[in-house]
Design goal:
about 425 residues; alpha+beta; Immunoglobulin-like; Rossmann fold; 2 domains; 5-stranded antiparallel beta sheet
Length: about 425
């Protein structure tokens, strides 16, 4: 149970009785307004359309879902069975050196705790909290959710972290999520003008049944392929599952070992020609998501190969546009690779330059998932270490693939 320290800010020997009454009335009005603000943002959400931030099938706390808007934050946690008390810890400024340090998760600096719907602000690295207001809070046997008015939170970053616990009636923690020591990261707030506006609008119209022929086509190599040995296509499957809820058909064109060079030349399946065959009309209702280049860097790689990778991708895109001139393209940068830093640098450069040159929106996986810890082994499958030697990893674990899929969805799915 929380021990609060807000009383140390008030000197009761100095305050006159009438001042205390005035302050109590003012505090009541502030908290009442906070509750009204939370209620005003509480609309019924279709949580089935929201991809989980984290999912753990063996955990009694199964997943965390987030709706991250400019003015409010909604969090839902699904559980096999909820306990008496729920706690949501937020590292709101994305700085592990500020806020409460929790030994439940590494690199944690928890600035706020929402406990059974009450919001507390951290007073430092130790267990000391100040009550600041209420969130809208709802709980049933299998889930709980909160809505937080972000105006009462300080130093809100575009990226921040979360950890969730539930406890029994004696305040003993029964379970936490993430169950590991790693803190889950929120998807960033997507701002207008990020280049994905047209794609989000297209998907929104599909969900409203204004269009019934919107398609998403994922082009890739073994990091996308539905192949039993490499990845089982989890990135695509997660994205496809979400898009189905929006009345969007999804197709996968990916094969292990494939290169941007082969895709552009059109000699093998899948090529740009096969992509064209899936697109109806002028392409205005098609979204083509390209993620190629790892194998170009591996087979023909080395210093100075970025221009060639960019040229192959550009050639393929222009060939598609010749036949389907209004096709909506997006680029998803291939993931990082452990042990191949010189190659990663080449296709990262190619994607950044191509995105800018052709004005194609980019999902920058390397900077948004792998930048802080490019050697995070939990994101890569262990089997690659045997294939390529010690610390040589190319393919992602299910966790890594889920992070990539969630990042893609955070860009392309409409707000409502």
């Amino acid at each position: 149970m929380l021990k609060l320290y807000s009383e140390k800010y008030i000197n009761f020997t100095v305050l006159r009785k009438e001042n205390i009454v005035k302050r109590l009335i003012l505090a009541f009005l502030v908290l009442f307004c906070m509750e009204l603000a939370a209620d005003s943002n509480q609309t019924k959400e279709n949580w089935d359309k929201i991809s989980p931030l984290i999912y753990e099938s063996q955990n009694s706390l199964r997943d965390i879902k987030v709706i991250n808007k400019d003015d409010f934050l909604k969090i839902r946690v699904d559980a096999n069975k909820t306990q008496t008390h729920t706690g949501i810890y937020l590292d709101i400024d994305n700085d592990e050196n500020t806020g409460f340090y929790s030994d439940l998760w590494d690199h944690s600096g928890m600035d706020y705790l929402i406990e059974d719907g009450r919001i507390y602000k951290s007073l430092g690295r130790e267990w000391a909290w100040e009550y600041i207001g209420k969130a809208w809070y709802s709980k049933n046997e299998n889930s709980f959710e909160v809505t937080i008015d972000k105006s009462i939170l300080d130093n809100v970053s575009d990226k921040f972290k979360i950890g969730v616990t539930h406890s029994n009636k004696d305040w003993k923690i029964v379970s936490k999520i993430p169950s590991s020591k790693r803190v889950a990261k929120f998807p960033r707030i997507i701002k207008k003008g990020d280049g994905f506006d047209k794609i989000r609008e297209l998907i929104l119209k599909a969900s409203n049944f204004e269009y019934d022929d919107v398609v998403y086509i994922c082009v890739g190599d073994s990091t996308r392929a539905d192949d039993w040995y490499y990845n089982n296509g989890h990135v695509f499957k997660i994205v496809k599952s979400a898009l189905i809820q929006y009345n969007v058909k999804a197709y996968l064109e990916a094969t292990p070992g494939y290169t941007a060079k082969e895709y552009a030349r059109g000699y093998y399946f899948p090529s740009w020609k096969d992509t064209v065959s899936l697109i109806k009309g002028d392409g205005s209702h098609a979204i083509v998501d390209i993620s190629l280049g790892i194998n170009d860097a591996r087979y023909y790689g080395g210093e100075g190969k970025a221009p060639y990778i960019k040229a192959y991708l550009k050639d393929a895109i222009n060939k598609i546009l010749k036949y389907k001139p209004k096709t909506n393209f997006m680029l998803t940068m291939p993931n990082s690779m452990i042990g191949f830093d010189n190659l990663v640098k080449e296709y990262k450069k190619a994607y950044l330059e191509l995105s800018k040159e052709m004005n194609i929106p980019l999902v920058n996986t390397i900077d948004e998932i792998f930048a802080k810890d490019p050697n995070d082994f939990s994101l890569f499958r262990d089997l690659d270490a045997y294939d390529y030697g010690a610390n040589k990893r190319i393919h992602l674990s299910i966790l890594g693939q889920r992070k990539v899929a969630d990042l893609i969805l955070s860009y392309i799915l409409p707000d409502n």
